[in-house]
């Protein structure tokens, strides 16, 4: 069925011997609108990103929540890079500026072809540059706690 679409139905009752009643009068029903979600992590809605470090203004942490998901232009503002190469842990946090309900977390990472990237999808893979280990945590009012669920 399609969201926000009206459908009409008629019914007939049949027994085991295939004796059927006349069709009922038509009944109409409209499906619910498609569920919508909003990105509460975007800077444009007031969320603020911070990080453990940044290499320089060419790799700002603000790039993680500016809704520019391809990472372009990499090296001149298109993505965040920490200042501690191969030294871990590093972290990025998004302050939503208030209580929000989050039902989905999407993490996009640097693409192998970062000089001419494409708009990422949930099935886009990488083998060279991307982030391979991360933990998503939520704030319970006094401490961070790991969010468990199904992560790709």
General description of the model:
- A hairpin with a 4-residue loop joins β5 (137-139) and β6.
- With 152 residues, the protein is mainly beta.
- Helix content is 0%, strand content 14%.
- The chain has one domain (39-152).
- The mean pLDDT is 88.
- The strands form three sheets. It has a two-stranded antiparallel ribbon with strand order 1-2. A two-stranded antiparallel ribbon has the order 3-4.
In whole angstroms, the N-to-C terminal distance is 28 Å
Major sheet strand order: 1-2
Order of helices and strands: EEEEEE
Biggest sheet descriptor: 2 strands, antiparallel
Number of helices: 0
The secondary-structure class comes to: mainly beta
Please give the radius of gyration in angstroms.
24 Å
Shape: elongated
List unreliable stretches of 5+ residues: none
What is the count of β-strands? 6
Mean pLDDT: 88
Report the helical percentage: under 10%
Number of domains: 1
Task: Report the portion of residues in β strands.
Answer: 5-15%
Secondary structure layout plus pairing:
Layout: E1 6-9, E2 27-30, E3 48-51, E4 92-95, E5 137-139, E6 144-146
Antiparallel strand pairs: 1-2, 3-4, 5-6
Structure summarized in a few sentences:
The protein has 152 residues and is mainly β.
């Amino acid at each position: 069925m399609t969201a926000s679409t009206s459908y009409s139905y008629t019914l007939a009752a049949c027994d085991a011997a295939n004796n059927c009643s006349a069709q009922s009068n038509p009944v109409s029903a409209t499906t619910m609108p498609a569920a919508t979600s909003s990105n509460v992590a975007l800077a444009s809605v007031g969320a603020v990103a911070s990080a453990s470090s940044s290499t320089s203004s060419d790799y700002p942490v603000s790039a993680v929540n500016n809704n520019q998901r391809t990472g372009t232009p990499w090296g001149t503002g298109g993505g965040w890079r920490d200042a501690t190469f191969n030294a871990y842990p590093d972290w990025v946090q998004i302050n939503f500026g208030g209580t929000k309900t989050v039902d989905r977390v999407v993490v996009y990472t640097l693409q192998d072809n970062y000089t001419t990237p494409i708009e990422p999808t949930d099935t886009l893979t990488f083998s060279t540059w991307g982030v391979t280990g991360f933990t998503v945590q939520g704030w319970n009012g006094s401490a961070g706690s790991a969010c468990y669920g199904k992560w790709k």
